[in-house]
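The aim of this short unit is practical: by the end, you should be able to scan a pair of folded records and say something sensible about each. We start with the first protein, listed as its amino acid sequence and then its structure tokens.
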Amino acid sequence: MNVFILEDKWIEQRYLEQTLRKIQTELKISKMNILPFTDVDSLMDELPEPSTGNVYLLDIEIAGNKKAGLQVSQQIRQHDAFATIIFITVHDEFLPTTYKFKSEALAFIAKDHDNIVAKLKDDFVFIIKKQHQQQPVQWLTLKTSAGYLKEDLGNIYYFEPNPTNSHQSLLHTIDNQVLTINVTLNELENEFPVLFRAHRHYLINPLKVISVNLKHHTLRFKGNDQDYPFSRLRTKHLFARLKELESPLKII
């Protein structure tokens, strides 16, 4: 679980960190990465891959901007449909405004140290239950010669360049289909950050990776016995991405 704190007051930030550690102990959460930020730009630079394991605790007023937290929540939601957003602030008058920003926040907690622990604990109980549920389907809308194709991310292994057309790529699915997509790998990589550029010629779905061979620099996908190369220069980035996803992984 990754918990991102956006709070520009050090004392409040420290209090939230201590509160989270207490909740972690009481709820027996095995892993909780707490990442505190004092400004919006630093937080936005560190957004992880979409996941139900991402939790954002946002103060609404940052550096004098009374709607900074609301504004950043909208960007977070556009990036990550699965994350949990919780507002912790003195500005409870902005509660109705959260609906305007479409952040789909789980809770809106006033900065009252007498009740913040209990309310946050209740929220994390809910989050844990949500994590044990099946993650919603994530769809990728892809341009083809016939129009647009809406493909379930869970049905995708990888994309590779089309050897006969440099403006196209080939989509390989888990049901052994090969579909022509009218965009390049670079364009796909920029549009869908959930995908990972493992090699110059491979843009993969990291959610499908089940094993990595460090000697031969190859990887395998779930339900697929074929070995696929990954760049030596991308090894560190590959493991960082797989660690974020917390997926079962065999290293050879």
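Turning to the second protein, read its sequence before its tokens, just as you did above.
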Amino acid sequence: MLNKQDRILIFGAGVIGSMYAIKLIEAGFDVTLFARSDRYKSLRENGLRYMEKGTVRSIKVNVIDTLQNDDIYDFIFVTVRYDRSESALLTLKDNQSKNIVTMTSNSMGFSSWLDIVGDRLLPAFPGFGGQIKDGVLHARFLPKIIAATAFGEINGVVTERIKNLAKILKTAKLPYVIKKDMQAYLITHSVSDIAMLSFLHSENKIIDKKTARTRKMARKITVTLKAHLKAIQKAGVSIDPPMLKMVLKFPNLFLDLFFMAWLRTKMVRDMMLPDYANHANNEIVQLSNDLIKFLSQNGIKSEMDSRQIVPDR
């Protein structure tokens, strides 16, 4: 039987980490948040604040800013952006916890992560997003049929820890799906992120609303997404979710109209706020560069416009 008091550390107190913390605390789990700087101070003083039905609420959470090697948890959820993933794993390298769940995109496979934490690694991806505004979490949920927490062993085997993680999420009433090929799922997701979010920056500045809503911008997303999907297919990656295979069959005009509508949504307006856009750009740059490396390693010449990619910093 799963003990509802299993200890869970959430390494990263941004949108994703905060959302999992709320759901898991409400479900009765022993949850600790790892945060730094102003976020650590805010959580200590005000609790974890979040918006629910127009009202700001607060939930008490245990928060730390240092982690001892013998401070052992049943699961550690790493909820940082991709461009910070290796740094986070290096921080966790000597901690003795046995299960490290990476809740982020990945565009080139798990080799570098495995080199750091070994077989403790359990790749996953969150099922929601949002923003933190003035210290308050504004979560954004997608329909369960579209978004659920995805996770799975690298080799696809349904192990005991997979079953335990599933029980934890079920208890917290968080929809989930167990994947047999997490690498394919994460690379596919990275491709869609690169295509749909790279437009946020142009010529080293955040793009304006008028430009973002043009047919030209929508066509850029359409062409980029199709090129990326074709490239990863050539590299032997199974497109997952499979419905994205339909993108390759749809006429460009149909996709242009879809993306023009998407570019006018509140979600995209929020994405264009400076804090989100700048952080997203750092992640997209890293994902793009690593995708190029992955394709090159598999003998695939990328069709990406190299002008969109800048060197690692």
